[in-house]
Here is the input.
Amino acid sequence: MMNQRIVLASRPTTAPSAENFRLEAVALAPLNDGEVRIRNHFLSLDPYMRGRMNDAKSYAQPQPLNETMIGGTVGEVVESRNAAFAVGDKVVGMGGWQLYCTASGRGDIRKVDTTHIPLSAYLGAVGMPGMTAWYGLNKICEPKAGETLCVDAASGAVGSVVGQLAKLKGCTVIGVAGGKDKCDYVTGELGFDACIDYKAYPEPKDFYGALKAATPKGIDGHFENVGGSILDAVMLRMNAFGRIAMCGMISGYNGAPIPLAAPQLILQSRLKVQGFIVSEHMEHWPAGLTELGTLVATGKLKYRETVAEGLASAPQAFFDLLKGKNFGKQLVKLA
Amino acid sequence: MMNQRIVLASRPTTAPSAENFRLEAVALAPLNDGEVRIRNHFLSLDPYMRGRMNDAKSYAQPQPLNETMIGGTVGEVVESRNAAFAVGDKVVGMGGWQLYCTASGRGDIRKVDTTHIPLSAYLGAVGMPGMTAWYGLNKICEPKAGETLCVDAASGAVGSVVGQLAKLKGCTVIGVAGGKDKCDYVTGELGFDACIDYKAYPEPKDFYGALKAATPKGIDGHFENVGGSILDAVMLRMNAFGRIAMCGMISGYNGAPIPLAAPQLILQSRLKVQGFIVSEHMEHWPAGLTELGTLVATGKLKYRETVAEGLASAPQAFFDLLKGKNFGKQLVKLA
Here is the structure.
């Protein structure tokens, strides 16, 4: 049986492009005892993948060249030599950019229940992005009722969950997103109190003015996905003892790091700024996923997906994600 | 009876200079019921005073023009209309840049015991600088035995206490200071494991090379007094889950804020970076001062002082402090 996969062919130095990837057909080896074969239905595309394409020190190993690109997947078991997994079981795992993956069955896949939660949601609001939101918000931003919470990339897979969870906690929630459609969705559908379209304010001081107008009581907690000039403006609005969860800095992923303009504000406003990687806090996943799953199943946590069709569309969908062209969780439908 | 005092005459825009201050002779008003008059013996000069000279939003109110410069003092009660304070009592308080101060006696002065601890130490290792070191180290850096702890301005009133406390906790301690004499003192007298002379490495990459050589296992906790290029280099050496206590950024006090070159390291290395002001954590002072006082009285905590003679010398001593010309705690002897 033949598999199709996308491998990393070369490393980009600025924005990635098509020649950095290569689509291959490879034969699938027979399963060994204990192994499980999965037909991947959806592939998750996430900003962290850009970092893995570099050959640089980071929190994770670089993506090896000429090997299947890393990525979260949901799919269905099609063959099993493991008593814990039956053909037809729906599972989530890190199946990569390919049609089929082979799991060891020893902790690398997890069965999921699609009775009340769509399969794809396990890659979004009830998966890694949702847990990223849950952890950063609850464990670093620590929002209290009545406080003002800010999040950028607010319509995205992580930001949308951050803001909705903060609303449920009684916060005033301000989003930042790119374009009127996204901002309308964030306030109209997701229920944020305001959403600032950063594209409408190309001058940093104008963006700051809009943020100031939207946060008359300042900002107590901020969830950072973007970095750069958005973070600089937010820092100026942070109240004393504010908390900033550093989750992503997508604005700097394709080039030189973007400096932080005014680090002295960390001191002057007595801020806590803390970076985190949700996969290092697995002990919180069972509780977090239960909460997120219940909220999705009962319609209290909304999300949106952008779905690219077919494995071959993954690279372009990924480039678009890095430019913020997606709307909500970016997926690739593989079957 | 006449007092002499130094007031803020104007606000500096870059480095402060003599014309920003004015020495005045003013008559002392008779004491009201409850008040206490103190002859200040020592005035403390501290980097935070530079911030107060600006008319800018910060954690504290700006120093008002034409009023006595703020400052910590130790002295002796010379007149009292308060039963809790007798003539001859030694006290510490915020007496300002002047020979005499008048205390309300309601929480603004505190009696100190000079049997085993010199009076001036209550402005240094057993005072605000010591507590600053104690709080930032214990509550933010949270060093564990075997970890590597870094502190800059290492021979100063705060840095010297940070490093000695960390050594007592079993850390490897690396200091950064300006000049061979200070570095020799930090390793020879204070017992740090190494001290890097930043003046010997004017090129950031050379300073980074020296820091890397001195921290083969990376840095787990950092106590920041300086900011700028030193902080940039330290960030590159921080281990995963490192903690940075932001106490001061003296390198940027006299001009435009100095950006942080690589804020993405907060995310990549999952750092916690937290600013603090020790006066907002008074609940820790009794325990901290007891510990620091015992260490000083028993000779386990060493410190050094630079003493300028006479009130009129305070402005120049302050300018020198901002340039790092002092060695240890900068005091002005008033009597």
